[in-house]
Design goal:
With 119 residues, the chain is of the alpha+beta class. 34% of the residues lie in helices and 13% in strands. The chain has a two-stranded parallel ribbon. Helix 1 packs parallel to helix 4.
Length: 119
């Protein structure tokens, strides 16, 4: 959520170059887990219904692109080493860009530079 504004700017600036999609995975800072000050009040998801409900918080923030939800078994998050967050660019089914793992490696600026080259 911290860099959602920067993500939205990427979507605005590069929607002519790429289709954007957010995959909502396991909650990185659940209320009953690793908590930060000013955290969103979301517990660790015990089932798909809870994960879908938690993803609605993100949807309400209007990320300007579709939001899909990973399985509770974290299949996508695990395959893409995406926890807690990460950028990927796929072309013709192949990964052509893999950003560093968040939160410290999550870089909208780096993604912007990569997408600029695709214009």
């Amino acid at each position: 959520m911290y860099k959602l504004g920067e993500f939205k700017q990427l979507v605005k600036d590069f929607s002519d170059v790429a289709d954007f999609l957010v995959v909502y995975i396991a909650e990185a800072h659940s209320t009953d887990g690793w908590v930060f000050a000013n955290n969103v009040d979301i517990n660790k998801h015990q089932n798909l219904v809870e994960r879908l409900a938690a993803a609605q918080f993100l949807v309400k923030q209007d990320p300007l692109c579709p939001v899909v939800v990973d399985e509770v078994t974290d299949t996508t998050g695990t395959k893409y080493c995406a926890f807690p967050e990460r950028f990927y660019v796929l072309k013709a089914g192949k990964v052509i860009y893999k950003g560093k793992m968040g939160p410290w490696g999550y870089s909208p600026e780096e993604m912007c530079s990569f997408l600029e080259k695709m214009k």
